[in-house]
Amino acid sequence: MNALSIEHVSKAYSLDGVARPVLKDINFTVRRNEIVAMVGASGCGKSTLLRLIVGLDSDFRGSIVSNTQTASRTKVGMVFQDHRLFPWLTVEGNVALAFDNSDLPAGQRQEKAKHYIELVGLAEFSKAYPRQLSGGMAQRAAIARALAQEPDILLMDEPFGALDSILRMRLQDELLSIWEKNQVSIVIVTHDVEEALYLADRVIVMEPNPGRIRETIDVALPRPRDRNGVLLANLKKHCLSMLI
Q1: Hey, what long-range contacts does 107-116 have (CB within 8 A, 24 or more apart)?
Q2: From the candidate CATH numbers 2.40.50.40, 1.10.8.60, 1.25.40.10, 3.40.50.300, the one assigned to the domain spanning 1-71+190-244
Q3: Which residues are paired to 212 by β-bridges?
Q4: What is the domain partition of the chain in residue ranges?
Q5: Gap between the Cα atoms of 194 and 184, Å rounded
Q6: What is the pLDDT of residues 25-34, one digit of tens each?
Q7: The Cα angle at residue 242 between residues 238 and 244, in degrees rounded to 5
Q8: I want to staple 83 with a disulfide (CB 3.0 to 4.6 A). Which of 9, 138, 238, 240 is the partner?
Q9: What is the pTM assigned to this prediction?
């Protein structure tokens, strides 16, 4: 069963009274517990598409349909490039924000927040404030907050883009570990082709002016994947050939 279906989605902005197309006839699906990555040059509409999926913008043509077997309304979580933690709240306080619209008693909120903080390896920093965290730790806290919503679909917009390469690789592995435990569908936008191929089951290559899908690549490689393996290198070469 598909968790998400994008059908003939097009989007345009008005610039000086003239419609400027940003997305043109986008079609793809995301299966349950699948990771789909989108790569492409700046300006090809990747982040715009995420905004449409999460519901931050409803002015588009086509349809975006979420489907789950367990709920009548699909829950969508979002992780941005910058962690967007509230500086006046601790890690625990930031993660507990996910329960603001729930009827959970305070004790259960604290327990659930603790669970997701432990899941991302921040148990020792639950009382820390964002200013006391490294960039990678803050991003893990943001992931914990998104997962605490118990989403059916997790959208990630360049979540590791501001991190150094070593920390980036470490958090990629942590994300895969969390994904295996939580059975969540993930759509991740990234400029890093290697990251997309390492994480995703499928990689959607987009091209700009207007943003449209050039090719969808099935990454039929077992996990854990060898970053330096020949098969991954060949896929990377093919993918880059469409972007350069």
Answers
A1: 112/148, 113/148, 116/144, 116/145, 116/147, 116/148
A2: 3.40.50.300
A3: 207
A4: 1-71+190-244
A5: 22
A6: 999 999 999 9
A7: 110
A8: 138
A9: 0.89
